[in-house]
Specification:
By secondary structure, the chain is mainly alpha-helical. It has one domain: MFS general substrate transporter like domains (Growth Hormone, Chain: A), CATH 1.20.1250. Helices cover 78% and strands 0% of the residues. α1 crosses α8 and α11 runs parallel beside α16. The chain is globular and about 50 Å long. 62% of the residues are buried. GO terms for molecular function: transmembrane transporter activity. It is a multi-pass membrane protein. Pfam families: MFS_1.
Length: 419
């Protein structure tokens, strides 16, 4: 698989697109952590920190599919860069205004979330036009998931480093400036400027008219809840075991576990349909959340957090392929954006729920939330197997369009996967 990754990265524009997207997504990947630390530095409590992070996430969830649909209709440069600039400006307002007045703080984080550019969905829409071959595109999805976990591993450490060197306010500002530069790198690239979506059937539901996609989104809503609750539950645990440094290591450990899992998962070609495999991956994911309730010492807790993240990247990589199988024609960016949106909504709900739970029952009850959410996600997949197994009508693009660099090559493959 290492050779397969290198083959992809050697493809023209591939490394630039991957790196630019990851850097461009840095503000979004670290927003919950940065907001929590900033609010605490301003003297706010856990509930306020969780509420502001939740508002950011919900606004992000609203904006991602809307901006994704605009990308499908208008192209990437006209949408991605203006959105990145607007999001960064709103977060700067929050950083300078703080939590007083509170309505301005809520408005600023809401705007920052709403205008977060859909770089993640945009990259997955670009892969087929850059790589061409089915096996390369599926491998790129696995590499994409692994690379994201590198960002989720490094991101929390960058936040805590900025906080340690300067302040929580500086962390918000620096990360958003860097994010704009990443988005700029992507949108000025030739593949992004040339990409156009395939023709789509006019329908107000867009990608959401696919029942299989709706099932997938419902399952990943609860995976997001699990991760969001860990973000908040880890704060009081870290306060009792070393402070912000321990918190940063716990968040990084979650990403490290997913990174390791993604590398191992991508090291082989998997037989069978991805829908069945996703159920197995989510089952392991739910089980691995339970040991967090043991709350041992800091070193052991970091190890348990690594374990909790191991099956995340494989589940996400598998979900990418399932999105391809179920998204209606002409809705590729929107469909991927809906997956990002649902995951973000879940993460925000998790932070919002875990705040009061932690204040009422402490970190132990906070760490009970991810296990319960993982179990519900598995139940959704088990109870809707027949719906998820049926790909959406019109989801296969003719080979001629896949091989034309000037057309919207959507990643539609009729059988097999290698994510």
């Amino acid at each position: 698989m290492a050779a397969g990754y290198l083959e992809i990265l050697r493809a023209r524009h591939a490394a630039r697109l991957l790196a630019g997207t990851l850097v461009g997504r840095l503000p979004n990947a670290t927003a919950a952590i940065a907001i929590v630390l900033f609010v605490r530095a301003e003297g706010g409590g856990y509930s306020l920190a969780g509420a502001l992070a939740a508002v950011y996430g919900v606004a992000n969830a609203v904006g991602q599919p809307l901006l994704g649909r605009l990308v499908d209709l208008r192209g990437q440069p006209r949408v991605q860069l203006p959105a990145a600039l607007a999001s960064a400006l709103a977060m700067a307002v929050f950083a300078f205004a703080g939590t007083d007045p509170l309505p301005l703080a809520y408005a600023a984080v809401a705007a920052a979330g709403l205008f977060t550019p859909p770089l993640e969905g945009g990259l997955r829409a670009l892969w087929p036009s850059v790589l061409r071959r089915e096996d390369q595109v599926h491998t790129a999805y696995a590499m994409d998931a692994v690379a994201q976990e590198v960002m989720f591993t490094v991101g929390p450490l960058l936040v805590t480093l900025c906080v340690s060197l300067w302040s929580a306010q500086a962390a918000l500002l620096v990360l958003n400036v860097v994010g704009v530069l990443g988005a700029l790198s992507v949108v000025v690239s030739p593949p992004a400027r040339a990409w156009r979506s395939a023709p789509r059937e006019a329908h107000w539901l867009g990608a959401l008219r696919s029942p299989g996609l709706l099932v997938l989104l419902a399952a990943f809503l609860f995976v997001g809840i699990a991760l969001g609750s860990i973000t908040v539950a880890s704060v009081p645990y870290a306060d009792d075991h070393g402070g912000d440094t321990v918190y940063g290591w716990l968040m990084a450990a979650l990403g490290l576990g997913a990174l390791v899992g993604g590398v191992v998962y991508g090291a082989r070609q998997w037989a069978g349909v991805p829908e069945r495999r996703l159920r197995v991956l989510v089952a392991f994911l739910a089980v691995c959340y339970l040991p967090l309730m043991l709350m041992p010492g800091a070193v052991a807790m970091v190890a348990l957090t690594v374990l909790a993240g191991v099956f995340l990247a494989p589940a996400i990589a598998c979900a990418f392929v399932i999105v391809d199988r179920h998204a209606p024609r002409g809705t590729v960016t929107e469909a991927f954006s809906w997956l990002v949106t649902t995951f973000t909504v879940g993460h925000s709900l998790g932070t919002g729920v875990a705040g009061p739970v932690v204040e009422a029952g402490g970190a132990l009850w906070g760490f009970a939330v991810p296990g319960a959410a993982g179990a519900v996600s598995l139940l959704v997949l088990l109870s809707t197997g027949r719906v998820l197994a049926a790909p959406a009508a019109g989801a296969v693009v003719a080979a001629s369009s896949e091989n034309d660099p000037n057309r919207a090559a959507e990643p539609r493959f009729s059988s097999g996967d290698r994510a």
